[in-house]
């Protein structure tokens, strides 16, 4: 029942979490949407606590998923309601989209790359004698494309976080 | 709403408790069997029974060592806690350590007995539960309970256990100023966004909550609590003042019982000073009927430092929430001690002369809020609360210490619940000295110790720890903290190999305060016993009263009887019964009933005889 955080952040933007299609939506529109979703999904509003007195695995899991959903709704709102934070987030979002649209030359499995523990990065030599390098931090952030240090080639790194 | 999911709201205060329910679209406060809307948080043990509430408080001077109060200051804490230590200096009851846990030692039915604070709290909860049940005329199984804002995670768990012992499921714990804010917010229901500060100065705690109200969503911005502030401490200053005076004037030291009596009188004087400038303190048979006066000016002078620290608390909560004092729309006062004029003046001055809101009943606001939250959680479809939701926060930060001694802060104070935070911890380079210092376990793996702390900087409290086995090839571990809406904290750790979660080396623990299920079960059955005992006593008293009423009625009737023979016989029977009652104050229920029946038969017999003869 692991619910991977990285996955959620990568697959959904804060706008998507709040079910807002227009990323230029006004603060008032976002607020209304936030309040609507919050009342709809919050476990406290579902009568769950009382109706599911038996603590079956199914119930616990359900409640947990609801709590996670609400946590993200609140998180999204806390960023988008603050004009400064929203700007930073919008910029980051733009940068990430650019990154994902890039063309790459090859798919490389992460296991085939060499791990450098000192520097916390993975690397593999490029045919131009340069190196493709990606830091652990980038991977955790969800990046999967990296360029060669000397030439213009790019690779797509295949990896997955294994869940239970 | 079905029977199953009806929930009540209980405010378990340090000095007073109250209980509320949501009924017919509004909050109803329930009066106890004495007709009072608040019940003293006192439990007393006597030679024959357990007294709870008013009955316990009124007899405190006769039985100070076996009358327990201040339970919220004891529950979920160790005897070495600073606050517990300072309380022990003046609590007339004795606090002891047993099996590494705090217990309260009392003489009950002429035997020494040790109770955990959870058990004492459960007796108070039972009392509140019964008050509600008597009113509703049905069983109650769920409750929302309010506690002071400084309560930590272990204290939350302890309160939940106290609920279990009392046969109640505590579906949510909220702190008292936040609860009061819900009650206030629902009452006023203004449109648009408002920032509301609730200042709660009670018997021995001072709590402040800062909330943003926006269309029914009550978002807590920050909470803060302090247990060194409150009515009791103001009493302390007065008591100390007079004790010094008595020592100086009479060169006499005072016993614990004397101190208890002085305290009661000082408390009364303090309350009087809220409305008048001067209060007389008269204590019978203490140094030949001691009496003195206390002026409001003197009272304020004795407590000025304490008042000032209350203002500092407001400042701190605003800082935590990063909100300027000019942004606050309303300031709401609750708690008995906010009646003190000086406090009101200081707060108003702090907010540049802002009008303070005193319109909500300070003693009941928290319980009202709890009842509203209880109705919301039970899925009540009332129009008034359909769109109301409370977003609460955690009052304490959490941090993790790994084997290398580095403490990493995890969850910050005042984060909206629920919270889940994960962090990656890099293990030092393979073969480095750090890994060599770890103990090898039998599978040739390493164990890494993970310790969980609550609080920050200078106040941290170890609340749990566990060991995670890691293989030598692991480079990192991921630690996750989950704090759900019910304030249950779960900590899990998993080793990561090449960015992947290990399937073997992972562990999850739930933080609890160490009362095992068996212990709780035992306490539940003991609580059941106490309840039965109390019922027996109540029935006994009822039987005795019934008997008395019958005799008195007879006594009145015989005055109208003209037949002297019959009158004399009846008078004899009545006086015999009175004598028996006087000599048998502690008889059993059956005996009272039997005596009443006998008297009835005698009366009938006398009547028959005299009437037949006629």
TrEMBL record, chain A:
Q: Which GO terms describe its biological process?
A: protein histidyl modification to diphthamide
Q: Please list the residue ranges annotated as the J domain.
A: 13-93
Q: Which GO terms describe its molecular function?
A: ATPase activator activity; ferrous iron binding
What the entry lists under InterPro entries is as follows:
DnaJ_domain, DPH_MB_dom, DPH_MB_sf, J_dom_sf
The UniProt keywords, alphabetically, are: Iron, Metal-binding, Stress response, Zinc
Q: Which SMART domains match?
A: DnaJ (SM00271)
Q: Where is the DPH-type MB domain?
A: 104-160
The lineage's top-level taxon is Eukaryota
The record's annotation in Pfam families points to: DnaJ (PF00226), Zn_ribbon_CSL (PF05207)
Primary role: Required for the first step of diphthamide biosynthesis, the transfer of 3-amino-3-carboxypropyl from S-adenosyl-L-methionine to a histidine residue. Diphthamide is a post-translational modification of histidine which occurs in elongation factor 2.
Family under the similarity heading: Belongs to the DPH4 family.
The entry's protein name is: Diphthamide biosynthesis protein 4
Please give the organism.
Rhizophagus clarus
Recite the lineage of the species.
Eukaryota, Fungi, Fungi incertae sedis, Mucoromycota, Glomeromycotina
Automatic annotation (TrEMBL), chain B:
The source's superkingdom equals Eukaryota
Alphabetized, the UniProt keywords read:
ATP-binding, Coiled coil, Nucleotide-binding, Stress response
Q: Name one GO molecular function term.
A: ATP binding
List the residue ranges forming a coiled coil, or say none: 582-609
Q: Which SUPFAM superfamilies match?
A: Actin-like ATPase domain (SSF53067), Heat shock protein 70kD (HSP70), C-terminal subdomain (SSF100934), Heat shock protein 70kD (HSP70), peptide-binding domain (SSF100920)
- What Pfam families does UniProt report for this protein, alphabetically? HSP70
Its family remark reads: Belongs to the heat shock protein 70 family.
Q: What is this protein called?
A: Heat shock protein HSS1
């Amino acid at each position: 029942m692991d619910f991977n955080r990285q996955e959620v952040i990568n697959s959904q933007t804060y706008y998507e979490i709040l079910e807002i299609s227009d990323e230029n939506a006004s603060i008032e529109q976002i607020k209304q949407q936030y309040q609507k979703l919050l009342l709809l999904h919050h476990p406290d509003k579902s009568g769950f606590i009382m109706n599911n007195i038996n603590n079956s695995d199914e119930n616990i899991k359900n409640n947990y998923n609801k709590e996670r959903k609400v946590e993200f709704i609140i998180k999204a709102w806390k960023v988008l309601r603050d004009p400064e934070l929203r700007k930073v987030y919008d910029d980051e979002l733009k940068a990430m989209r650019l990154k994902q649209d890039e063309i790459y030359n090859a798919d490389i499995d992460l296991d085939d790359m060499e791990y450098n523990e000192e520097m916390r990065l993975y690397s593999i030599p490029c045919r131009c004698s340069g190196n493709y390098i990606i830091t652990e931090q980038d991977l955790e952030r969800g990046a999967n494309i990296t360029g060669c240090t000397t030439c213009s080639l790019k690779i797509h790194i295949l990896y997955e976080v294994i869940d239970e | 709403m079905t029977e199953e999911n009806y929930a009540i709201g209980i405010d378990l205060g340090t000095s007073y408790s109250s209980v509320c329910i949501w009924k017919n679209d509004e909050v109803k406060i329930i009066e106890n069997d004495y007709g009072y809307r608040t019940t003293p948080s006192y439990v007393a043990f006597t030679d024959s029974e357990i007294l709870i509430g008013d009955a316990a408080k009124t007899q405190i001077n006769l039985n100070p060592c076996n009358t327990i109060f201040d339970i919220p200051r004891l529950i979920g804490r160790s005897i070495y806690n600073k606050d517990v230590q300072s309380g022990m200096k003046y609590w007339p009851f004795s606090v002891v350590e047993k099996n590494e846990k705090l217990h309260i030692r009392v003489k009950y039915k002429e035997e020494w007995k040790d109770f955990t604070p959870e058990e004492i709290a459960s007796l108070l909860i039972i009392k509140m539960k019964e008050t509600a049940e008597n009113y509703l005329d049905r069983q109650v199984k769920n409750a929302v309970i309010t506690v002071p804002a400084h309560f930590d995670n272990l204290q939350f768990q302890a309160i939940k256990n106290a609920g279990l012992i009392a046969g109640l499921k505590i579906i949510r714990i909220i702190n008292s100023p936040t609860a009061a804010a819900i009650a206030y917010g629902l009452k006023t229901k203004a449109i648009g966004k408002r920032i509301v500060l609730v200042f709660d100065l009670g018997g021995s705690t001072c709590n402040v909550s800062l909330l943003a109200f926006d269309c029914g969503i009550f978002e807590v911005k920050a909470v803060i609590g302090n247990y060194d502030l409150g009515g009791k401490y103001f009493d302390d200053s007065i008591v100390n003042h007079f004790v010094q005076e008595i020592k100086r004037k009479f060169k006499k030291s005072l016993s614990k019982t004397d101190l208890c009596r002085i305290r009661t009188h000082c408390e009364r004087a303090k309350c009087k000073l809220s409305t008048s400038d001067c209060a007389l303190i008269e204590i019978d048979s203490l140094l030949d009927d001691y009496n003195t006066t206390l002026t409001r000016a003197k009272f304020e002078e004795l407590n000025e430092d304490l008042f000032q620290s209350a203002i500092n608390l407001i400042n701190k909560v605003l800082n935590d929430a990063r909100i300027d004092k000019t942004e606050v729309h309303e300031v709401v006062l609750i708690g008995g001690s906010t009646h003190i004029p000086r406090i009101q003046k200081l707060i108003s001055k702090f907010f540049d002369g802002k009008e303070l809101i005193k319109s909500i009943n300070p003693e009941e606001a928290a319980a009202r809020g709890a009842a509203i939250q209880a109705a919301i959680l039970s899925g009540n479809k009332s129009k008034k609360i359909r769109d109301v939701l409370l977003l609460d926060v955690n009052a304490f930060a959490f941090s993790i210490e790994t084997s290398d001694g580095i403490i990493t802060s995890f969850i910050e104070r005042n984060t909206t619940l629920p919270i889940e935070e994960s962090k990656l911890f890099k293990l030092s380079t393979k073969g480095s000295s750090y890994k060599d210092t770890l103990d090898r376990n039998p599978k040739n793996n390493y164990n890494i110790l993970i310790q969980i702390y609550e609080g920050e900087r200078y106040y941290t409290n170890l609340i749990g720890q566990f060991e995670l086995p890691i293989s030598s090839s692991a480079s990192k571990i991921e630690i996750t903290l989950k704090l759900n809406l019910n304030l249950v904290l779960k900590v899990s750790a998993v080793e990561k190999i090449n960015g992947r979660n290990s399937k073997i080396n992972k562990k999850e623990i739930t933080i609890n305060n160490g009362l095992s299920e068996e212990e709780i079960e035992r306490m539940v059955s003991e609580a059941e016993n106490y309840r039965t005992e109390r019922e027996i006593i109540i029935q006994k008293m009822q039987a005795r009263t019934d008997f008395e009423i019958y005799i008195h009625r007879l006594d009145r009737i015989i005055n109208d009887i003209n037949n002297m023979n019959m009158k004399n016989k009846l008078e004899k029977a009545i006086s015999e019964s009175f004598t028996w009652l006087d000599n048998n104050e502690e008889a059993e229920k059956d005996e009272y009933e039997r005596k009443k029946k006998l008297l009835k038969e005698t009366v009938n017999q006398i009547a028959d005889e005299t009437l037949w003869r006629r």
